[in-house]
């Protein structure tokens, strides 16, 4: 990997998503040292200059919900054209056969895809621990470190099998004590609560219909003790609402409060089917919501009430969601989808490209409980995505920042994480993309061949 100079001036960008930074930014070590107005020069000598006249510079995108293992089952014939519950039931038997090597490749591919889309912090919700995948968190941490991407890895879980009233088969669940013991293990090994952390761990029981109330409560206690975040799916479909009413006698938000999760430590995936009173309760508690526009459209789950949730006080971020319900791990594409879906919901003037970019940066960072990433400002981590507008799709565009979203940017030219270049000239540093594609594709074919 190419070593980045200690003090680097990213000079005179074509456009930059930061106030008073028309002259660029100075990166020193892992952090942003200066933001320079147009025409200004650094206050002290720099070791190198990167001429950014062709580049639109934005904060590194922050992904707050994904399932890396699902890259192995994209466009799977048993699951396409189905809503969530039938979709899950079709794929559970396939996922239970994922091998450790296939999982490693799936994680590597998902992280690489995210980097190429301008994402610098990868949140992954991993809840699949069949026999042989007990050390999945360890694998994901190792892959994140090898690629140099910042990561929030969750120790997910499923503990209610079909014969206990849940959805997953018995081969995919673990008992509560096993989950809690391993949760504490990975927190002790990998979780770094300090500013600038490259790896953080969150606890993430899969959903109300996949775990016990005890596991939810004990996970909340562990999160408090280790100062980590809590994450789960909630309010994704009307089926989920009906399930919670039948199983627990209450709607999902009331359930969340009963098990001790209604707090600023929590962020939720999807958050679509909340009524007005629930939106107010979530906002008052500071619960974050990860909006997954692409997945929500593919599965026809519904529309997240982003504007109402934000107005109520909930941080709103973006996630690509699993690559079997999105079929892509491209977060800048998700930004465009968020803009389009929310304009359809709220009107053309109510949601702008800047709102969608804010959700993918500052909003997502807040969901993860971080104030050291998600913005371009002195003292913050040097996580940056640089895009060029050289493709035909951008010809004739007049507002460079708007063009990224409206014209459909797909791939960053440069990506910096913690002051180091991780994507250079559109290629991930240190990754043989062709070899990864071949190995991952082979693993997916082998999995499909066992059907």
Written overview of the protein:
Helices cover 37% and strands 19% of the residues. The chain has 451 residues and is of the alpha/beta class. The protein has two domains: 7-59 and 373-428, Urease, subunit C, domain 1 (Roll); 61-367, Metal-dependent hydrolases (TIM Barrel). β8 (119-126), α3 (136-147) and β9 form a beta-alpha-beta unit. The longest helix has 17 residues, at 100-116. The chain is globular and about 65 Å long.
Largest sheet: 6 strands, mixed
**Dominant shape:** globular
The CATH class of the largest domain: Alpha Beta
- Class computed from helices, strands and strand pairing: alpha/beta
Radius of gyration over all CA atoms, rounded: 21 Å
Helix content: 25-40%
Query: Strand order, biggest sheet?
Result: 2-6-15-16-17-18
Number of helices: 14
Number of domains: 2
Protein name: 8-oxoguanine deaminase
Keywords: Hydrolase, Metal-binding, Zinc
Domain Amidohydrolase-related: 56-420
Family: Belongs to the metallo-dependent hydrolases superfamily. ATZ/TRZ family.
Features:
451 residues; alpha/beta; Urease, subunit C, domain 1; 2 domains; six-stranded mixed beta sheet; four-stranded mixed beta sheet; 14 helices; 18 strands; 37% helix; globular
Strand-helix topology:
Elements: E1 7-11, E2 15-16, E3 24-28, E4 31-36, E5 48-51, E6 55-59, E7 61-63, H1 84-95, H2 100-116, E8 119-126, H3 136-147, E9 150-157, H4 176-190, E10 199-205, H5 213-226, E11 230-234, H6 238-248, H7 252-258, E12 266-270, H8 276-285, E13 288-291, H9 293-298, H10 306-312, E14 316-318, H11 331-346, H12 353-367, E15 384-388, H13 400-406, E16 414-417, E17 420-424, E18 427-428, H14 433-449
Parallel strand pairs: 1-5, 2-6, 7-8, 8-9, 9-10, 11-12, 12-13, 13-14
Antiparallel strand pairs: 1-3, 3-4, 6-15, 15-16, 16-17, 17-18
